[in-house]
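Lecture 7 notes: from sequence to structure.
We start with the chain below.
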Amino acid sequence: MTLGLAWATLKYGYRSNGEMSTGGFSKARLRRMHDVMAGYVARGEIPGLVTLVSRRGEVQVGALGAKAIGGDLVRRDTIFRIASMTKAITAAAAMILVEECKLRLDEPVDRLLPELANRKVLKRLDGPLDDTVPAIRPITVRDLLTFRMGFGLVMGPPDKYPIVLATDELQIGTGPPSPATTPAPDEWIRRLGTLPLMHQPGERWMYNTGSEVLGVLIARASGQAFDTFLRERIFDPLGMHDTGFSVPAAKIDRLATSYWTNFATGKLEVFDKAEGGQWSRPPAFPSGAAGLVSTIDDYHAFAQMMLNKGKHGSDCILSRPSVEVMTTDQLTPEQKAVSGLTAGFFDSHGWGFGVSIVTKRVDIYGPIGKFGWDGGLGTSWYSDPQEDMVTILLTQRAWTSPSPPNVCLDFWTLAYEAIDDTSER
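Predicted structure tokens for the same chain:
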């Protein structure tokens, strides 16, 4: 593979004395980041990637590799499928409606989602679908935002769990994003309503489905299609003009091909192509959990808004209290003890509204209070209030497990070890 390289620096903002502001980065250590990231591309582990590290108004962006194996070079404006990084945007949209009193955090969702009223709950997760008890209380908006609605991703073989098989058969599953097969919102929520919950509302954290339900709820509460609401209330105000649930024909040449790993051969195979792929046309179901595509600069606008407590220039997308509650750990110790995607995750993390939050420092890149989330198709974002810092990594190689791949671990480490408040500028 030819190693393509574009490494750009953008600085903006001024100190009170008129001098250009600085993020306090070591240039030598930023070069180390470039060299390590370039190694992933040169070895063929990652076809292409874009990185962004910003701190105190200084933004460092790097683009390496190709949009598709053997194809054109990745650029700063290359479009990627951001998968579960969608969840934070969905949560922000819900909080806009909370601020407008069109939703309330602790009200049952039954008013707008009658399909989810009067829930039944499985007596045991691997039991038959008709072996249930009544739900002890309704599902609330807060349950959706915190993934405590009682339904979500189950780690294990599908044939062990009748509820997982039924979810897959109804095409409302929790596997990789599938815009081409998921039914329209009203039909999607109807199908979900035919199934029992896996656990009692509020009992434990279960990944993913809460964000999907939120997308339907937001549409009904706002009286607009979910994608229209996002466009008018978040994307346009933030200048996120390349973010959406599909890529128009005029921009399709900027969409990276998506790959996943064949576990039998260890080689990369195409998960979704650009032209003619699943994201080349608007989906029937705009997925609030994993449906969006975006660019590094578009997502940085959202990440920086969250870091700025809801402000974007003179615009206020969210109030400071809304961002603060979104980025506050909402889980109890009892809920953490029975939850998680990977062993020990909640020992050092919590969950707010659509984002994880670092609650205990255990590594170089984990200051307490850092928040954000990753995308299983190969992306990651975190905002760090302590360092006034944003880190974003966009690749087109899907993760092979819920544990972050080495490219993420190395990127996070390199971003933080590049901080040098005493270095010459």
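Points to note: Residues 96 and 368 are 26 Å apart (CA to CA). DSSP finds twelve helices and 16 strands in the chain.
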